[in-house]
């Protein structure tokens, strides 16, 4: 049965990553380690028979898209609709700052039955999910079969996985995505899905810290 295999990656480590900022549409740069993480991802994927490479138009995703497309001798296809969530007035803030400035929003984000909240001046969770659904559907119509790579953002990866897993808007936010992690999903023309990989490791520096990702097993109350 014909299907599209989508390889979708989160961008590499960003500047001030240790502050846990809500970057959203802020056009922040990668760190040196972030570029190294994506360079390793490119090496891991260069042997795959990719028909096209897409990325968000934000430079933290563009770096990986351009590197992978160049490696494959292809032209990068830039799609603005694969941007991260628009956090509006919360852009550039971390959660403690959001809690101080928008206490009701902070409470809604943490509620187990949340997922329908809106970021002031930005997007609601349903609006973001709808945007990614539309962008994904357009990509699938262009590529009903074969293999395609997409370099994007944590929220975008979560939204795509939520479609494949049948998750609600609330459940979508429970999927962790490391810097430069790889996800792989097969999308069948019949409408079915097969999830092959979630938050895959492309090390040795594919995660926030050097090493094989064991730091993800260590409790960090700041994450």
Please tell me what the overall shape is: globular
Q: What is the typical, i.e. mean, pLDDT?
A: 88
User: Strand fraction band?
Assistant: 15-25%
CATH superfamily, by name, is Phosphoglycerate mutase-like
Succession of helices and strands: EHEHEHHHEHHEE
- State the oligomer: single chain
> What's the number of domains?
1
Rounded to the nearest angstrom, the distance between the terminal CA atoms is 41 Å
CATH C-level category: Alpha Beta
DSSP helical segment count:
7
Strand order in the largest sheet: 3-2-4-1-5-6
Radius of gyration: 17 Å
- In terms of structural class, how would the helical and strand content be classed? alpha/beta
**DSSP summary, beta strand count:** 6
Helix content: 25-40%
* Name given to the CATH architecture: 3-Layer(aba) Sandwich
Largest sheet geometry: 6 strands, mixed
Unreliable stretches covering 5 or more consecutive residues: 207-223
